Amino acid sequence: MSELSVNHLLGIKYLQKEDIELIFQTADHFKEVINRPIKKVPSLRDITIANLFFENSTRTRLSFELAEKRLSADVINFSAASSSVKKGETLIDTVSNILSMKVDMVVMRHPNPGAGIFLSRHVNASIVNAGDGAHEHPTQALLDSYSIREKLGGVEGKKVVIVGDILHSRVALSNIFALKLQGAQVKVCGPKTLIPKYIESLGVEVEPNLRKALEWCDVANMLRVQNERMDISYFPSTREYIQLFGLNKAMLDSLSKKIVIMHPGPINRGVEITSDVADSDQAIILDQVQNGVAVRMAVIYLLASKIKQ
């Protein structure tokens, strides 16, 4: 397979296994590039990309911007907080105005699920979903799978547990789609109130006991509790959450095997994982960040090569 089967990256659920393979092979190449003394390639010199962030983001926005600049694209950054959106401008108007500046690709994060899909039907540009509400965050899932592949030699057959706030997590949903597509076994673990009712229909098992989940898995992906998305209290207290679902070094060291620890960030140190776990040699959190740039370069490059045709 030499090109993606899609014209946009709206969610993992629209990708085929071959698409993921192609993205990873391309990311391997770009990872080599970003470790060179001169980290830039002229691949997208004639492509203009707009980053539209209607929600706060540090790592994802910086990662995309760095990926775009490494590929020599022209980059426009748009932050909703300081824009006419505050004056009541609609999403289509905002984007149409930006596209009239001859933009080829839009990377968008939006609080509403499906915003990217909506946009892809109404504007003539390639859309990359950088997170839509609690729905999907495809590039995060891709970089997570890529990091597992790099650390363990592959994703197929691996046992991955996703721990924490599954209900509000677009990272969890995209990861489940990506891992299942590549043949991994997936379990989720967290407070009952934070596990969606439909979860088992995705081919995922629920393991309520953290220790049992960790003894079972090869990889534990520890999610942040998303207080900003919670309109009610889903568990009695942070202290209780830490006791039941927080991972500390003593528990990690007491397991019968060495497992890989991942976290999409930002980390609430001392809540989902303690500092000594985050900084341990079993954690690949900083590898995930570095891989994020290579994977996003791959996605942008592959989508842009379809625009040029």
TrEMBL record:
Keyword RNA-binding: no
GO molecular function: amino acid binding; aspartate carbamoyltransferase activity
Entries under Pfam families matching the protein: OTCace (PF00185), OTCace_N (PF02729)
EC number(s) reported in the record: 2.1.3.2
InterPro entries: Asp/Orn_carbamoyltranf_P-bd, Asp/Orn_carbamoylTrfase, Asp/Orn_carbamoylTrfase_sf, Asp_carbamoyltransf, Asp_carbamoyltransf_Asp/Orn-bd
Catalytic activity: carbamoyl phosphate + L-aspartate = N-carbamoyl-L-aspartate + phosphate + H(+)
Entry keywords, A to Z: Pyrimidine biosynthesis, Transferase
Every Aspartate/ornithine carbamoyltransferase Asp/Orn-binding domain range: 156-302
Gene3D superfamilies given in the database record: Aspartate/ornithine carbamoyltransferase
Recorded superkingdom: Bacteria
Residues bound to carbamoyl phosphate: R59, T60, R109, H137, Q140, G265, P266
Domain Aspartate/ornithine carbamoyltransferase carbamoyl-P binding positions: 8-150
SUPFAM superfamilies per record: Aspartate/ornithine carbamoyltransferase
Pathway entry: Pyrimidine metabolism; UMP biosynthesis via de novo pathway; (S)-dihydroorotate from bicarbonate: step 2/3
GO biological process, alphabetically ordered: 'de novo' pyrimidine nucleobase biosynthetic process; 'de novo' UMP biosynthetic process; amino acid metabolic process
Residues binding L-aspartate, per UniProt: K87, R170, R224
Annotated PANTHER family: ASPARTATE CARBAMOYLTRANSFERASE (PTHR45753:SF6), ORNITHINE CARBAMOYLTRANSFERASE, MITOCHONDRIAL (PTHR45753)
Family statement: Belongs to the aspartate/ornithine carbamoyltransferase superfamily. ATCase family.
Subunit relationships: Heterododecamer (2C3:3R2) of six catalytic PyrB chains organized as two trimers (C3), and six regulatory PyrI chains organized as three dimers (R2).
Role of this protein: Catalyzes the condensation of carbamoyl phosphate and aspartate to form carbamoyl aspartate and inorganic phosphate, the committed step in the de novo pyrimidine nucleotide biosynthesis pathway.
Protein name according to UniProt: Aspartate carbamoyltransferase
Gene responsible for this protein: pyrB
